[in-house]
Design brief:
Elements lengths: L2 H14 L1 H10 L2 H43 L1 H23 L1
Helix pairs in contact: 1-2, 3-4
């Protein structure tokens, strides 16, 4: 039996009864448990790093796109900002009375 087959057996056992797998890993297979637990933080850290990198790339791409769009037609953005500011000012001034 290779490692893949053993993992498939563990997966099917975990699907059928979670407490059985916990009992087996806590009492019988200490070395397997230690190996799994030692690799888990590294796997989680790599997933976090990948998510951070993809979020940073996405944000930088969108910021570059917005910068280019603003430089091509700044008056639309200035007009939009003015309209939003006037609307917020009107609503806040109206509620203060």
């Amino acid at each position: 039996m290779n490692v893949k087959e053993a993992l498939e057996v563990l997966e099917s056992a975990a699907a059928n009864g979670n407490s059985d797998v916990k009992n087996i890993l806590s009492s019988d297979y200490q070395n397997l448990r230690k190996a799994i637990m030692s690799s888990a933080p590294h796997l989680a850290w790599n997933k976090v790093k990948d998510a951070k990198d993809s979020a940073l790339d996405f944000t930088c791409d969108k910021a570059d796109l917005l910068n280019k769009s603003f430089h091509e037609s700044p008056w639309y953005y200035l007009g939009g900002a003015t309209i939003v500011s006037v609307a917020i000012g009107f609503l806040l001034g109206r509620s203060m009375k």
